[in-house]
Amino acid sequence: MEFDYLKSVEIEARVSKIRWLTPGSATQRRLLSCNDKTIKLWRVGERCQREYTHVPGSSLLPKIHRRTTNTVARPLRTFANGHAYQINGLSMNSDQETFISSDDLRINLWHTNNKNEAFLVVDLKPANMEELSEVITGAEFHPYNCNLLMYSSSKGLVRVGDLREQALCDRYAKVYEDIEGSEPRSFFSELISSVSDARFSRCGRYVITRDYLTLRIWDLAMEKRPVARIPFHDYLRSHLSHLYETDCIFDKFDFAVSPDSKFIVGGTYHGAFTLVPVAGGQPLSFEAGKPKPSSGGFFGSLSWGRSKKPSAIMKPFHFDPVTADFTNKALRCAWSPNDSTFAVASSNRVLLYSQQSSN
Q1: Residue 89: which of 105, 73, 72, 65 has the closest Cα?
Q2: pTM for the whole thing?
Q3: In this structure, which of 20, 117, 212, 237 has its CB flanked by the most CB atoms within 10 Å?
Q4: In this structure, what DSSP letter does residue 276 have?
Q5: Cα 301 from Cα 308, distance rounded (Å)
């Protein structure tokens, strides 16, 4: 069992990140996965298996009795020993040849064909660890510009670096900090301002970040203030002391963006999630409960956007901090790249939802 010396915890045997590469063929795909310390490159594809029948004592050749197609994953390379601390970010470059991985203090640049060498591009480790005041919370490449990368920090900052300027990105092309919208200084300020998730929009023009209370949308051309501030946990402001005592204030919620970049979905407590229209409008919250059997298994049906039909499965949910279940957390969300279907992970379930047709 490995040990994380920064957080003084044992490293679990688990998969913490999965990133798909652009398909190389119709039947073969590659993906990156990692646990807290090691990254692996996999090839995933279909393999046809044939079963033959043979008549004992017959001179005839065996005949194919049945063909089956199985999905097979084969490890191609293992990228080990690149991180001393827990990996919290993994992002494939648009060139489909290089990728970055980040831990609390460093970001490494790898090439998919070289498992033995990584280049250090960001280093926050001080000479004296007692002087440590900031850690990295995530990192991602720009979706189109292979020279641009960003990372978020526990201070609520997002920095964008340009690899064309220099190999070590200790000078940043852009720094995004919401000074106007920052919370008044308190005992909880650093905890609630730490960025739990940050990513580029699909079009590459915006950076979207989420901390414990607020989601922010930044225009890459405007560093001084975000173009939008969307409160996700406004109702918890008066309950921070209780959340600190129960360790809930350390929960890291992520979010997902729709393919057309018009909606954002993010989870919260009580197994609930919120749909936010990016262009403005009333956010809608729903409880990620079990859909009715008639809804088709794991699929639920929601109504949002232009649809005028009321939802037959899900009803808007009003969050009450007094009666809410803070042990049921919808920490993870993912949106399909092709349609209005998204997934919400709540407790030990993954539930899928799609938008109702307006017809």
Answers
A1: 105
A2: 0.81
A3: 212
A4: E
A5: 13
Strand pairing class (214-219; 228-231): antiparallel
Taking alpha carbons only, the member of 65, 70, 21 closest to residue 41 is 21
171: helix, strand or coil: coil
CA-closest candidate to residue 96, choices 82, 113, 81: 113
pLDDT band at 308 (very low <50, low <70, confident <90, very high): very low
Give the DSSP H or E segment for 238: none
| Residue 11, number of CB atoms within 10 A of its CB | 17
- Secondary structure element (H or E) that encloses residue 285, with its range: strand 284-287
Radius of gyration of the chain (CA): 23
Q: With contact defined as beta carbons under 8 Å apart, do 139 and 89 qualify?
A: yes
CA distance 279 to 242: 34
Edge-to-edge order in the sheet of strand 39-53: 17-20, 28-34, 39-53, 63-79
Give alpha helix (H) positions in the chain.
Answer: 189-193, 240-245
CB proximity list for 263: less than 8 A, separation 6 or greater: 257, 275, 276, 277, 278, 304, 305
Long-range pairs of 44-51 with CB within 8 A, sequence gap ≥ 24: 44/71, 44/72, 44/73, 44/74, 45/71, 45/72, 46/70, 46/71, 46/72, 47/71, 47/72
d(CA 197, CA 257): 12
